[in-house]
Specification:
Chain lengths: ~120, ~110
């Protein structure tokens, strides 16, 4: 089945220790998104890729970086995690970034704990 | 600014009907989504409305009024498995999703 896969599902890291979260998709979608979601809050868009074009949200901290080496894979790098970065990180894909109905398909998420 | 408002929490009884409201203010509008999110899981797509009116899909229906900036999600014949958060998200002029914080729906036997 076509899907969005995130690894790992649960990640524990230490304060200040870099961590990388991964996302892959078999939907062949050209747009990929990274969201941060804290408990009982709306998902917060960090950045998205339209093909290889990177779009950073204005309020995304520099501590968060992303890479998309090919259509199928996208990575979220947190260079120096702080306690406030503990959250669920959601990867999503869509078939186009504009001009039409663009339902987003979500992966299962990675829950990040910072000790 | 852009904003989505929906109730924080609602409670309903198994077998009953519940309506979850959502109001939105966005820069431009290109449709409204409803997603279901069970605790600790990713959101899953429920519905999309871009024209005024009611879209029915089994036990779930979604309504949109563009002139009022208003939508609702109607759930019929509630089941215990419907206990989840329901997220309203509006698409702005740049086709970016503006998300609400979600409505936690609690179903009681």
């Amino acid at each position: 089945d076509a899907m969005v896969i995130q690894n790992p599902r649960y990640q524990v890291t230490q304060f200040g220790k870099p961590v990388t979260l991964s996302c892959s998709q078999t939907l062949n979608h050209n747009v990929m998104y990274w969201y941060q979601q804290k408990s009982s809050q709306a998902p917060k868009l960090l950045f998205h890729y339209y093909d290889k074009d990177f779009n950073n949200e204005a309020d995304t901290p520099d501590n968060f970086q992303s890479r998309r080496p090919n259509t199928s894979f996208c990575f979220l790098d947190i260079r120096s995690p702080g306690l406030g970065d503990a959250a669920m990180y959601l990867c999503a894909t869509s078939g186009t970034s504009g001009g039409s109905y663009n339902e987003q398909f979500f992966g299962p998420g990675t829950r990040l704990t910072v000790l | 600014g852009q904003n989505i408002d929906q109730p924080t929490e609602m409670t309903a009884t198994e077998g009953a009907i519940v309506q979850i409201n959502c109001t939105y203010q966005t820069s431009g509008f290109n449709g409204l989504f409803w997603y279901q999110q069970h605790a600790g899981e990713a959101p899953t797509f429920l519905s999309y409305n871009v024209l005024d009116g009611l879209e029915e899909k089994g036990r779930f229906s979604s309504f949109l009024s563009r002139s009022k900036g208003y939508s609702y999600l109607l759930l019929k014949e509630l089941q215990m498995k419907d206990s989840a958060s329901y997220l309203c998200a509006a698409t702005d002029s740049n086709y970016q999703l503006i998300w609400g914080a979600g409505t936690k729906l609690i179903i009681k036997p």
